[in-house]
Amino acid sequence: MAYPGVVRVFATTQDPDYDGPWQARTPSSSTGSGVVIGPGEILTGAHVVANATFLQIQKPSHPDKAIARVKAVSHDCDLALVEIVDPPRFLDDIEPAELGELPRLRDEVAVVGYPVGGEEISITEGVVSRIEVQRYSHSQRHLLAVTVDAAINAGNSGGPVFAGRKVAGIAFQKLHGVDNIGEMVPPPIIRAFLDGIAAGRRPEIPALGVVTQNLENPLLRRQLGLTEAERGVMVVTVDHGGSSDGVLAPRDVILAIEGQAIANNGTVQYQGRHRTRFDVALTGKYVGDKIALRIARGAARLDVEVVLGPWQPLVARSRYDQAPVYFVYGGLVFQTLTRDFLTTWDKWWNKAPKEFLYHYYMGERTADRHEVVILTQILADEINVGYAHLYNEAIVAIDGAMPRDMVDFVARLQAARGVVELQTSSGGVIMLDADEVRAATPRILERYRIPRDRSPDLPAA
């Protein structure tokens, strides 16, 4: 079977430099795959075009390339819609592919794309081996995915997986340490992405905004007031400002979501066929949608509605197509703690500061703290002598008050007069004279060739 609608994507990308957040890294080139799904439109993976500065598209067995740009992207579900810019009629001779339905277990599929090692199109075949919620490595979100036993290699990413003549998914990652186990974004998520673009909906995948605990222990269930017939998961924490804030509370038990009973191991029967994590019920939902929950609160049984919002962890997961947030004050470089900053350590999950890892894995967003402000480096100057050992620590107080986020932190520093006192998480104390800092800032920026003292998204001085 020929696949004329499968194209090759050439991307030039420039990633931000979190060691020097005022600059970007050297541009690099990569290739991926995509599939034509509409007039001049190509569906591919978000990771194929993340941080892209220039895109080109090449048709099968065609020497020329067309210039393209990203029309819409959802990094949460690793999907992007790319449109042709020049020549505008480059894809007119290709009939767009049709999106199919969610495949069944053991259905035969073909992974089509341009993996490394050759210039022509490659086809590998296999079967669907698993359908359940998986972790998307691009966004660290847990979403519905389909596992296939066909090879998915570098360059295949973003390419289509066909079941017959219809697209059954978009290849997005492979499992490392095993052979021929790859995963694809399934049709329900693809359809929600495309429908959301057409309707002008926000591209984020919403989150319920709670941490839950399974209830497989019978004594725990009884102590929570559940009957022998009731099953569910217990709410452990509720994210401040998240979807469930003000609706759910710790020790509530979620019995059902969207009418689907939740088992004690935290799973539901998706589409009556696939047992997987209960948050699969968010598939096809958008920010602003409502979702129905049946909960147990002591002896009461309540039906509640949650207005879905975006996921807002204390430590932001991988971010793309945006520059780091930073502020230079008296030669001290401050950033918000993000997963991107953690990855500046090789094997960061083991070698990054344990304090930062605790915030990443266990930190909770509260009314007093929306982000973790960290001191990442100290640019030596006479104004900061003696503080060189206090880098890679969180700021826990500025003049006795914890900064809520970076915007609040910068506002407090800008409003400060006289001596400013900063306290780090190790108990270290930094004192700077605000007037001396203002006088020293131009000198420090020029010495270290820093174009500006803050990222563009922070309030101006």
Question: What keywords describe this structure?
Answer:
461 residues, 8 helices, 6-stranded antiparallel β-barrel, 6-stranded antiparallel barrel, Thrombin, subunit H, 38% strand, mainly beta, Pdz3 Domain
Name of the top-level CATH class of the largest domain: Alpha Beta
Alpha plus pi helix count: 8
What's the overall average pLDDT, rounded?
A: 94
Radius of gyration: 25 Å
Annotated CATH architecture of the largest domain: Alpha-Beta Barrel
Shape category? flat
In CATH terms, what is the fold-level topology of the largest domain?
Answer: N-terminal domain of MutM-like DNA repair proteins
The spatial strand order of the largest sheet comes to: 1-2-3-6-5-4
- Kindly state the number of beta strands: 29
Number of domains: 4
Structural class: mainly beta
* % residues in beta strands: 35-45%
Distance between the termini: 62 Å
- The quaternary structure here is single chain
- Provide the helix percentage: 10-25%
Q: Which residues sit in consecutive blocks of at least 5 with pLDDT less than 50?
A: none
Largest sheet: 6 strands, antiparallel, barrel
What does this structure look like?
The structure is a single chain. The protein is mainly β and 461 residues long. It folds into 4 domains: 6-86, Trypsin-like serine proteases (Thrombin, subunit H), CATH 2.40.10; 98-199, Beta Barrel (Thrombin, subunit H), CATH 2.40.10.10; 206-310, PDZ domain (Pdz3 Domain, Roll); 326-447, N-terminal domain of MutM-like DNA repair proteins (Alpha-Beta Barrel), CATH 3.20.190. Helix content is 14%, strand content 38%. It is built from 8 helices and 29 strands. A 6-stranded antiparallel β-barrel has the order 1-2-3-6-5-4. A 6-stranded antiparallel barrel has the order 8-9-10-13-12-11. Strands 15, 16, 17, 18, 21 and 22 form a 6-stranded antiparallel beta sheet that branches. The longest helix has 14 residues, at 434-447. The mean pLDDT is 94.
